[in-house]
Amino acid sequence: MSRLFKITALVPSLSRTRTQRELQNTYFTKLVPYENWFREQQRIQKAGGKIIKVELATGKQGTNAGLQ
Q: Entry's Gene3D superfamilies?
């Protein structure tokens, strides 16, 4: 069982804009493996996004995540 982070982020979407001044933001939630967290964090920030919430998640509810 691998440790996962459940992240909620906000990234500006340039593909959905109708005019130059309008900027549409896209919210998304995804599970990211513990090992890939830093890479994912860099990707979101380079795209001009903000990480709103980070939670530790496991595959099953009630499973010990191994934090002590």
A: Allophycocyanin linker chain (domain)
CATH of domain 2-15+22-56: 3.30.1490.170
Q: Measuring CA to CA, which residue among 60, 47, 35 is closest to residue 9? A: 47
Residue 7 to residues 15, 23, 64, Cα–Cα distance (Å): 22, 22, 19
Q: Where are the domains of the chain?
A: 2-15+22-56
* Interval 43-68 mean pLDDT: 77
User: Across the strands, what pairs with 5?
Assistant: 32, 56
Mean pLDDT confidence for 15-30:
71
